[in-house]
Amino acid sequence: MNERKTIDLEQGWEFMQKGITKLKNILDGLPEPPFSSHDRMMLSTAVYNMCTQKPPHDYSRQLYDKYRESFEEYITSTVLPSLREKHDEFMLRELVKRWANHKVMVRWLSRFFHYLDRYFIARRSLPALNEVGLTCFRDLVYQELNGKVRDAVISLIDQEREGKQIDRALLKNVLDIFVEIGMGQMDHYEKDFEAAMLEDTAAYYYRKASNWILEDSCPDYMLKAEDCLKREKDRVSHYLHSSSEPKLLKNVQHELLSVYANQLFEKEDPGCHALLRDNKVDDLSQMFGRFSKFPRGLDPVSAIFKQHVTAEVTALVKQAEDAASNKKADKKDVVGPQEQVFVRRVIELHDKYSVYVNDCFQNHTLFHKALKEAFEVFCNRGVAGSLSAELLATFCDNILKKGGSEKLSDEAIEDTLEKVVKLLAYISDKDLFAEFYRKKLARRLLFDKSANDDHERSILTKLKQQCGGQFTSKMEGMVTDLTLAKENQSNFEEYLSKNPNANPGIDLTVTMLTTGFWPSYKSFDLNLPGEMVRCVEVFMEFYQTKTKHRKLTWIYSLGTCNLMGKFEPKTMELIVTTYQASVLLLFNNSDRLSYSEIMAQLNLTDDDVVRVLYSLSCAKYKILNKEPNTKLISPTDIFVFNSKFTDKMRRIKVPLHPIDEKKKIIEDVDKDRRYAIDASIVRIMKCRKVLGQQQLVTECVEQLGQMFKV
């Protein structure tokens, strides 16, 4: 036992050859008893003994080479001939069988020659036995047949696409060979099979799509495309490698959708345009559902949605402009009922398509963007001579003031205001809207025309949420001012009751406001009638008891006055502005006054005198007679008190034609913008210290972009 007999190579290999032949017979299905544990042990021991003999009888290298030769001989003599004589599906079945046998053979022989793996191979850094066995199959069988195998597999896949039944398990086993032969790498699968399969898929669906696009309606085509995608996905799960899924689906999507996307949508029967035109909400939802499954599949849908909405908004704008062109020349610049109707229609249109975005298009950002861009067309251009910012401000004014044309419930008013604020988001010149709105808010508050304080506060809250606190700070200050002014008036009345000497002689209400919150108004040194001078003096005395550090500026252009007019038919109460009252009170001392006398006594500008005299002598109520009796006021006119004036009402309001402040508002906003730009530049430079001019401009534009377009 101690003196082990030396085995020479030929003798030892002859013994190993018997074991290998027995294994081949078993694999080929020939009658052969299975290996017993004793057989396996004897073969392993033989290898061990031959590898552990002292040189020159250590046959490790020779056994390593003969291990590889065993595979090469078996493949060349048996495997390749059996594969070469078969074709198509039969060849695939044979290949799967031979590959399975080969793996078994590698596993068994690796066990017999295991000692080589543990010592000889490890020390010399040679390929492992398992790798050697698989490499033999790759170099001899795979390299020769992979092209034929690939073509056979692709042919079966195409047959399945045409509806034929195929053996999916067979395909799965064949494609596993492409993966396994890479021994951990996907190179062979990708280069030798996948690339050709993807090319064939593209060609297949190109042929299909070119026929379907001619025959089918858009929904039918989409159903077919969806079905194809589902089938391809199913294919991956059954026999293709999972890494092929994104590439395969991308190919199919490209051929079925991307190539024909525009044709699909433009199909009138019933394409996307038609679905939008006919309000086919359910069909649009289905279309969205189908196209959302494709990468970038929604781009053309959103583009057509944007076109459609833009066309509808543009049609509304054209209607408004046509209606405006039919207006009388003197009312061209006045925002009237037609403009109100136009804004209402724009809101309704926005409502309609917002529902589409939320319901049909599942709140998708692409469609929100399309809707925004479509409405920006209207919101950033003039409509019928009026700016959109002005139209929206006037629309709000009409809802919020007493006696507006919009008769709505409280809930409807809240809802409408919410929608106006949403539209405001599309306007780039929000500061212009703010200034128009502030002017109208001032009139509502000062002349007690606001229908409901809660609604006034509500819209300010909504504007604050949309545009930030700075946007509404002045407006909120105006509303607060009015509350404080009422308290101040109560204090004034209390002061009068406690000081009998401080009697203004007439009932006096003073609204005291903070200059910074309110729009700027012209302040003239109007020569007040004597009756009014005493009023101002008394209030100044009262105010100085409250504070000595604030300056009061009187804005007479915003005042109102109730006069008793003693006419021959009857005494009437006239509700007029402070300017009108000042003119009328001059006629207490003179029956006839010339234009120049009136102007000199009042110390007003030409424009204001013309406006006031026109309202009293040429308009609805002719309280003064004018010589000559024309509709135009000129510096040579003479005005006489009309003692015979009468009206069926005992109390009348004499209107004063308002000044068109649009030009002034735009100028004021432009001035404010310069300050805003200055402030923005200072803020940026304080933060950055040093900055390139172009970058400074970019940051400045970005910072101010929320309020106006720089």
From TrEMBL:
- Pfam families hit by this protein: Cullin (PF00888), Cullin_AB (PF26557), Cullin_Nedd8 (PF10557)
Molecular function GO labels: ubiquitin protein ligase binding
| Gene Ontology BP annotations | ubiquitin-dependent protein catabolic process
**Which residues does the UniProt record annotate as the domain Cullin family profile?**
387-617
Matching entries from PANTHER family are given as: CULLIN
Q: Which family does it belong to?
A: Belongs to the cullin family.
Name by which UniProt lists this protein: Cullin family profile domain-containing protein
